[in-house]
């Protein structure tokens, strides 16, 4: 373990995909105000797979939400691809997420009435890509993930692992530079979870993207380039992982 | 995203069917009740529309067409003296009793029209010759009269029956618009109408008038009223006067209005609640769409598309069912049923309002939705 609770930021924007500095976030008002992030510094390099770990309530998911621009921080700065995300208007943030970020959720959040391929095509449809083209791209990416036979299946007909693969395909179909994953293995058995994270790791490496994975699952630590431990709203430790070093 | 919106709508079959049922029921109820109401109002004016005269001269205190307040016989000549009158003819109208061959009695609306011109005769003659009314004892009877007085087997051209003990003979069968009171119309000449009805000091019911070329019926009606003190109305004015009287003096307006309002409220409640539930149950999915990059405007457009799509289908099915009712249950003038385009436009606007309000409730929920909820396991 590095034991560096607050790493100094390298301000070379070309090197860092994500730069977060002094991020503070509280919920509630007055006496019920609960500080969740207490000045977090975090940076993610291009091609890095970073695991964000820590006990429940340590602020991992809140930090992920702030980085994604879907939650406003009270203080601090977050830059993704050199863009100060906190300074963007709500509509600019939406557009930024659409163009640069991919999301994988613990509960998958697939649309229940859409087939696997339609679910995977949603980000392209949001971008205004023609339906037939979006479906063709989604089909291609699902095929590459071994889901070619399950394209027309509704989410209720898919196993947990298959649903997560559809969710990954949805996250990747628009070719985002940063993947934000919230407990991607929480609802999967060990073997499936292992395979899913291996895919995430390979994707991050192959395409020189960045991947941030919030997880409790110690079985997937081997895939992280760095493992950032959070405790009580702060970065407690940064541990070098076994993933390919950046 | 229109494709996604429609798949979300049609894919959730129970909610889609619930929405469709609510909007269809609402549309059908409003169209059906509205059509019956307007049918009744049309029937209430049949005493005017069957006669087809540009201007009606009446007693000055008349309220509606069926409330006959007899005029002095000299009124016809008084009206003729007003400048701008091309012609003015008398009209008798009253409810009388017809005695059938089997001894039964049936109430009829007897209409006496001026014999030389036959002004006030019905527009469509189904059988016989209306000009035969000028022959002795002649009457023309409408399709309801044929049915009420014994059916086509017993009532046909040449059949005789009695009105107030006076023998009359059917020389024509005519088509009329049914009346509010649902009495058959029997036409004869004005003079014969006076002779078969009981003695009264005044028997002239109305004077029918036409303006000379260059003067509108409105202008002439105003002139007659001004110069004679009599009531004078155009066909439209008399019709609306009748409708206003019915709405003010009977419970018909309140009754139909309540049902139409009920249809509107039920449609609003069902679609609003179902749409809201639909949105609430899909909040994580909508949150995910927001996180992925769908703007609130895009989600609002999706909701509006869903709402107006199911609204359009519900409107089509509802109008179709109401029309089917009109063609079957109310066919052949059995029930008053008049489906008009203003009613259909009005219902479309009402449905648009229902869909818009239902959508706004859901859109407000989505606008406030924090996409961060998708990260809460």
How does this model look, in words?
The complex is a heterodimer of chains A (246) and B (377). Chain A has a domain at 46-64 and 91-240: P-loop containing nucleotide triphosphate hydrolases (Rossmann fold). Helix content of chain A is 30%, strand content 26%. Chain A is built from six helices and ten strands. Chain A has helices at 60-68, 90-100, 116-126, 131-144, 160-172, 190-206, and strands at residues 16-27, 34-45, 49-53, 75-80, 83-84, 101-104, 178-182, 210-214, 226-231, 234-240. In chain A, strands 6-7-8-3-9-10 form a six-stranded mixed sheet. In chain A, strands 2-1-4-5 form a four-stranded antiparallel sheet, with helices on one face. Chain A starts with 15 loop residues before the first strand and ends in a 6-residue tail after the last strand. Helix content of chain B is 52%, strand content 18%. A six-stranded mixed beta barrel of chain B has the order 2-3-8-5-7-6. In chain B, a hairpin with a 2-residue loop joins strand 6 and strand 7. In chain B, helix 2 crosses helix 12 (296-328). The mean pLDDT of chain B is 89. The interface between A and B is medium-sized, with 35 and 28 residues.
Number of H/I helices of chain A:
6
Low-confidence stretches of chain A: 1-10
Structural class of chain A: alpha/beta
Helix share bin of chain A: 25-40%
Q: Order the strands across the largest sheet of chain A as they lie in space.
A: 6-7-8-3-9-10
- The fraction of residues assigned to DSSP E strands of chain A is 25-35%
Q: Report the C-alpha radius of gyration of chain A, rounded.
A: 18 Å
Number of strands of chain A: 10
Note poorly predicted spans of chain B.
none
Main sheet summary of chain A: 6 strands, mixed
Termini separation of chain B = 26 Å
Q: Biggest sheet of chain B, open or closed, and with what strands and sense?
A: 6 strands, mixed, barrel
Please bin the fraction of helical residues of chain B.
Answer: 40-55%
% residues in beta strands of chain B: 15-25%
The strand line-up of the biggest sheet of chain B is 2-3-8-5-7-6
Q: Class by helix and strand content of chain B? A: alpha+beta
Cα-based radius of gyration of chain B, to the nearest Å = 29 Å
Greatest interface (CB-CB under 8 A), with counts per chain: A-B, 35 and 28 residues
Q: What order do the helices and strands of chain A follow? A: EEEHEEHEHHHEHEEE
Q: Helix segment count of chain B? A: 13
Q: N- to C-terminal separation of chain A?
A: 17 Å
């Amino acid at each position: 373990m590095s034991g560096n609770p607050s790493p100094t930021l390298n301000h070379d924007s070309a090197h860092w995909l994500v730069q977060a500095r002094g991020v503070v976030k509280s919920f509630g008002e007055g006496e019920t105000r609960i500080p969740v992030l207490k000045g977090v510094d975090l940076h993610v390099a291009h091609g890095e797979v970073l695991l964000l770990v820590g006990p429940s309530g340590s602020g991992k998911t809140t930090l992920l939400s702030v980085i994604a621009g879907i939650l406003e921080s009270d203080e601090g700065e977050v830059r993704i691809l050199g863009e100060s995300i906190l300074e963007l208007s709500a509509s600019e943030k939406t557009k930024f997420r659409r163009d640069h970020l991919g999301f994988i959720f613990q509960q998958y959040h697939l649309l229940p009435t859409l087939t696997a391929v339609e679910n995977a095509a949603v980000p392209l449809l949001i971008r205004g890509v023609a339906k037939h083209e979006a479906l063709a791209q989604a089909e291609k990416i699902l095929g590459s993930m071994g889901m070619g036979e399950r394209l027309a299946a509704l989410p209720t007909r898919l196993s947990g692992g298959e649903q997560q693969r559809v969710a990954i395909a949805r996250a990747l179909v628009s070719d985002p530079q940063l993947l934000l994953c919230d407990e991607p293995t929480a609802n999967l058995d060990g073997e499936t979870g292992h395979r899913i994270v291996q895919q995430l790791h390979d994707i991050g490496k192959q395409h020189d993207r960045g991947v941030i994975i919030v997880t409790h699952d110690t079985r997937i630590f081997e895939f992280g380039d760095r493992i950032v431990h959070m405790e009580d709203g702060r970065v407690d430790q940064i541990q070098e992982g076994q993933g390919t070093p950046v | 995203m229109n494709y996604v919106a429609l798949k979300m709508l049609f894919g959730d079959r129970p909610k889609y069917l619930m929405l469709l049922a609510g909007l269809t029921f609402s549309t059908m109820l409003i169209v059906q009740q509205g059509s019956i109401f307007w049918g009744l109002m049309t029937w209430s004016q049949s005493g005017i529309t069957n006669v087809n005269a540009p201007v009606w001269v009446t007693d000055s205190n008349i309220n509606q067409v069926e409330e006959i307040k007899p005029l002095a016989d000299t009124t016809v000549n008084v009206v003729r003296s007003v400048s701008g009158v091309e012609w003015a003819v008398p009209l008798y109208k009253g409810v009388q009793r017809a005695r059938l061959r089997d001894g039964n009695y049936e109430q009829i609306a007897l209409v006496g029209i001026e014999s030389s011109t036959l002004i006030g005769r019905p527009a469509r003659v189904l059988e016989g010759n209306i000009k035969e009314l000028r022959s002795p004892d002649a009457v023309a009877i409408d399709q309801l009269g044929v049915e009420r007085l014994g059916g086509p087997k017993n009532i046909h051209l040449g059949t005789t029956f009695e009105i107030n003990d006076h023998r009359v003979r059917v020389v024509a069968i005519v088509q009329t618009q049914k009346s509010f009171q649902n009495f058959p119309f029997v036409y004869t000449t004005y003079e014969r109408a006076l002779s078969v009805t009981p003695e009264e000091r005044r028997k002239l019911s109305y004077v029918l008038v036409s303006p000379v070329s260059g003067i509108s019926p409105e202008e002439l009606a105003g002139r007659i009223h001004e110069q004679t003190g009599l009531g004078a109305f155009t066909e439209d004015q008399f019709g609306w006067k009748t409708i206003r009287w019915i709405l003010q003096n009977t419970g018909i307006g309140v009754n139909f209005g309540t049902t139409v309002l009920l249809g509107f409220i039920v449609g609003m409640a069902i679609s609003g609640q179902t749409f809201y539930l639909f949105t609430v149950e899909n909040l994580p999915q909508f949150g995910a769409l927001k996180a992925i990059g769908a703007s609130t405007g895009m989600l609002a457009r999706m909701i509006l598309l869903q709402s107006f799509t199911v609204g359009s289908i519900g409107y089509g099915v509802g109008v179709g069912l109401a029309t089917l009712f009109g063609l079957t249950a109310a066919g052949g003038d059995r029930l008053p049923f008049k489906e008009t385009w203003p009613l259909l436009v009005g219902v479309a606007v009402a449905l648009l309002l229902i869909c818009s309000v239902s959508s706004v409730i859901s859109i407000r929920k989505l606008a406030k939705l924090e996409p961060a909820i998708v990260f809460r396991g």
